[in-house]
Request: fold
Amino acid sequence: MGCCEKKKPEQLLDKNTQNEKKEISELTNKKISYLDFEPLKLIGTGSLGRVILVRYNYNNNIYAMKELSKAKIKLNKQEEHSKAERDLMVKLNSPFTVNIKFAFQDDSKLYIVSEFLQGGDMFYHIHHSTIHLTEETVKFYIIEIILGIEFLHSNNVIYRDLKPENILMDSEGHIKLSDFGLSKLLENPKDKAYTLCGTLQYLAPEIIKNKGYDKSVDWWSLGCVYYEMLTGKVPFKVKANLINQNIFEEKINFEGISNPILVNLISQLLSVNPKKRLGYGEYDAKKIKEHQYFNDVDWNKYLNKEIEPPFLPKLEGELDVRYFDKSFTDEPINSNRSTINSRSNGTSEYTGFTYMTQSVGKDMVEGVKNEEEQDV
Reply:
C-alpha cells in the first residue's frame, strides 16, 4: 500500500467508534457519580436501600436510581446478589425487562440507574383500583409477563421474585419485570438452585420445603400473581411471616373466577408437584402458551407490542408520580450531597461494578466537551 492511500469509509467509522468507546470508558471510570444526578422524588424503599427519581445532568433525562447501602448488604450477606443484579441487567435486553442505564459506586453505596417506568407497579394498581381488572385486561398483562419470564428462562435465569411490586408499567401501558437482586443465572439449563429466597406469598412449595428447584418456580409465582390480579388477594394466606407447608394441600377458592378454562390454567400453574406444573421441563413457556385459554393469542404481535394496552396511564409531564404510593413520594429525599466523595472509586469487593450504556455515554461525552468549550 502507498503512503498516501486513503482509508476506506468503514475504516474511518471503526476508528471513530473506537475513539468514542474509549472516551466513554475513560469518563465512566473518572467522572460518573451521584453528583451527576439531580434527586427529585423518593419513589420506593426496601431492606437494603431506596429508589429515587433523578434527572441526569448531561442529557436531562429522567431515570430511577436504586441506592443500596453497602453496610446493609454486608449485614444481610447479599454481596453476591447485589453484584449479580448488576451483571444480569447488563446482560438482559428484552422489551419486557427493565433496562439498565448506569451502575456505579462510592465508599458507602452501590447505585443502579435504570429507565423510569412512570405507570407505577401492579401492586399499586391492584390495591388502588386505578385499573378495572377484568378477565381480558388481566390476560393482556399476564401475556406480557409470560414473555418476560420466557426471555429470562431462555437465558438460563430463574427470576425468583415475581410479584406485583416488581411488575412495572411504562407510560404507554406495557409492563416490564424489574428487580433482579434475587435472580439466579444457571450454568446449565438443567441445573437446580437451593437458596431459600423470595417473597413468601409467591414462593413455590419446593423452595419453602428446602428442596432443590428449577425454573418452574417462576410459573408457580405467575399462578399466584394471576390469582391476585383477578381477586385482589393471594391464593395462600401467610401469618406472622410464616407459612404452613400443609396449606398448599388445601383446595384453592376460585369463587371469584367464573371461566372454567381459566381456572384450569391457574390450577395447573399452582400444581404443588413441580413435575406436574404447567411450564415444567424443557418446553417451559411453550406449554403455557399452548394452553387452551391462549388459543386466540397472536404471541408475535404481543412480542412486538402491536396489541394496544387496555389501560393508558394519565400523566401530566415526565415528573408525574401519581401511580406511586404517597407514603414514598411525600417523604423528603434527605440527600447530603456535600458529604459525597465524587472521585471515590468505591471499594475493592465491587471492582468492575461501574457500567454505562453507550447511548448515555455519548450524551456524557458531548456534555463534558460542551463544558470544556465554555471554560476556554
In short: The chain has a mean pLDDT of 87.
